[in-house]
Design goal:
Blueprint (H helix, E strand, L loop, with lengths): L4 H6 L12 E3 L4 H11 L1 E5 L5 E6 H8 L2 H9 L4 H4 L1 E2 L9 E2 L4 H8 L11 E5 L5 E6 H12 L2
Parallel strand pairs: 1-2, 5-6
Antiparallel strand pairs: 2-3, 3-4, 6-7
């Protein structure tokens, strides 16, 4: 039973993960991920070993559409997610969380204590091998806290 805030903040990120985040290979077309972006606002880009290599957000697509050439490639189905993704490495500790990292560190990333200096809507979570296991969002934290406090 959880009795205080310190206990929660020391819990591992894996307990707060939302595993339902779409993934796509870097060769996927931007058009092929649009439906996922509409539902989830982001798609994790993974390599053939399911290791995180980037993220495509709805904002990345909007930015790409500002460029006429890129917009044409997206419309024709030629643009790949690799062309517009924000590259990420599983070792980027200020933007990607390890599953054994304490929740406090993930909250710090969500709240803007990261290399971009701005709040994130989600923090990708990877295991020791760099494989994506999901994401932590404010919503996934709230859901898990509700479950924990209801015990």
């Amino acid at each position: 039973m959880i009795t205080n805030t310190e206990q929660v903040l020391k819990m591992k990120a894996r307990y707060f993960v939302d595993p339902n985040v779409p993934r796509a290979p870097q060769t996927a077309t931007v058009r092929s991920i649009i439906d996922n972006l509409q539902q989830h606002n982001r798609v994790f880009v993974v390599d053939e070993r399911d290791q995180l290599i980037g993220i495509v957000s709805d904002q990345d697509v909007v930015e790409a559409l500002k460029n006429a050439d890129q917009a044409g490639r997206i419309k024709s189905g030629a643009a790949t997610v690799a062309e517009i993704m924000t590259p990420l490495e599983p070792t980027q500790t200020d933007t990607v969380a390890r599953d054994n990292e304490p929740l406090q560190a993930v909250i710090d990333k969500l709240s803007g204590k990261n290399s971009q200096g701005k709040p994130f809507r989600a923090v990708p979570v990877v295991n020791a091998e760099g494989n994506v296991i999901g994401q932590v969002t404010r919503g996934s934290i709230q859901t898990r806290l509700t479950e924990l406090l209801g015990e």
